[in-house]
Amino acid sequence: MEAKKLGLVLGIITTVAAFTRILYILEAPEVQHALLGEFNFIIPAMLKVASSPGKEQQEKPLVILPNLTSCHESMGRSDLPVYCCPPMNQSNVAIIDFQFPDPSLPLRVRRPTHLLDDNYISKYKKAITIMKSLPDTDPRSYTRQANLHCLFCTGAYNQQGSNSPLNIHRSWLFFPWHRMLIYFHERILGSLIGDDTFALPFWPWDIPEGMVIPEMYMKAPFFHEARDFSHFPPSVVDLDYSCTTPSSEDYRCFESGLGPEDQVHTNLVLMYNQMVAGAKKMELFMGCPYKAGEGGSCNGPGTIELAPHNTVHKWVGSNLNPGSREDMGVFYSAARDPIFYPHHANIDRLWDVWRTLHGNKVITDPDWLDSSFFFYDEKLQLNRIKIRDVLSITKLQYAYEKVDFTWLNNRPKPSVPLEVARNILRMRQNAKQQQLQRNDILSSNFSPHGRFLDATLRTRVNRPKVRRTKKEKEEEEEILVVHGIDIPEERYVKFDVYVNVVNETIMNPRFREFAGTFVHIDQGVTRVARESDIEVFRKKTDLKLGISELLEDLEAEGDEYIWVTLLPRSEGCITTTVDGLKIEYIR
């Protein structure tokens, strides 16, 4: 590039010299005037070329690609160094581009865990037993398969062309990367027993029939000791599970205290919010756009990743493992538990269901579509696979057995009659009127350094647009943004967000006032161990919650402001700060 610029400069000097000589030779004034006109055109054009970027200078695609030669020790938790790297250097391994399976082959059909028969369980048992017997030098082995999740969830790999660590949680990489993981895991299991039709099961904890730990996962080789024994069947899964860490010696989680029927109902209402009411736009469901390079990372999970994904991980993890409820309760060790795979098969199914419910929407940004990862297949070939390759499960030759979307008919209702709530909120406003400054709630409740979540936070947030038309609401979703969430220590943090609540003590996701939840599972990526230094890598989080339908149900669409309550659900909130709350609109 520097040589190119030098050549252009020399060309301009030569041109000037030549024109000067020509003008000296040609004495006619009219000829000199004409040539000067051409001279005044040519020189600026040459300068423009010199200053304009060439192809190599133009903006490069910000696609994500892991650097397989950069694998290093990482942090499973903020206090636990882990080494998940393959036993052999991957730099000399031949890489092939992923090819779709032969469409003439039979479809692999993933079935719900509660409908599996003895013949299938026998085949799966044989496959996983063989996988567990393979040596760690074999990338198909159970240990290597589990370590894949550790590698990409703790920052063990850098991005290609950058020193930035790569992490596939809390962004739009979450769904496609996990689809790739279980897809190749499934193919490997099938090949180990010579069955091209073998498919992983999915654990449908989102429907009443599947809201307990599947029976087959209570027996070897699917049983895993590092689980919470109090959550064994017939305990109903809590999709809004909360834990707290008062001290390193005393790790406690809060049971909901609900009976089985109430717990099932609460789960269904939560699913409705996470799949429908709170997830009407792409980013709200998929997560924030994560781009390549040091300035491209983001920290903004989608609805399903926050809950029930994160909450089920914690609910399954062992209460005997202080700190993070390993194995399922923290990312570096989660895939060691065989139940990880049906859990994520259900997450994958819900991505497909969401697309069906919302018109088969897909992200069109090439930086997302062309981001690539590497996975070994059943033939020990290292595949380069792009996100665009995994958008159609039909092309990948698998499908899900249909189950009822029970949660689709569980739109929540307000906790108290709306007229009662409005009267109470009106009295609250009158009482707070003297504390408000120019209706700017952020300046009166949040300092420049944020606000600690060491107690329930109730604040008023102004709405820029009121009484929007039906068309406007279809085009733009109103979102409540809890921005600048800062977790200084890598800890488990959970808080719930409510709108226009009059009694916080009875609140849970069953009620329409519930806008969403924030669930942060510690993953250790805030401190990444390198050969020469320790890099601090932490970004504040923005929680974006779709509230258009909520405001409609609370009859608050015409209000100029709403009352927002942040309800801490974990001890980690004590050191967590929030920069503020605001209303935005997203198309």
UniProtKB/TrEMBL annotation:
Cofactor(s) listed: Cu(2+)
InterPro entries: Di-copper_centre_dom_sf, Polyphenol_oxidase_C, Polyphenol_oxidase_cen, Tyrosinase/Hemocyanin, Tyrosinase_Cu-bd
Sequence ranges assigned to domain Tyrosinase copper-binding in this UniProt record: 337-348
Keywords (A to Z) from UniProt: Copper, Disulfide bond, Metal-binding, Oxidoreductase, Thioether bond
Single Gene Ontology MF annotation: metal ion binding
Family that this chain belongs to: Belongs to the tyrosinase family.
PANTHER family according to UniProt: AUREUSIDIN SYNTHASE-LIKE, TYROSINASE FAMILY MEMBER
Protein name as annotated: Aureusidin synthase-like
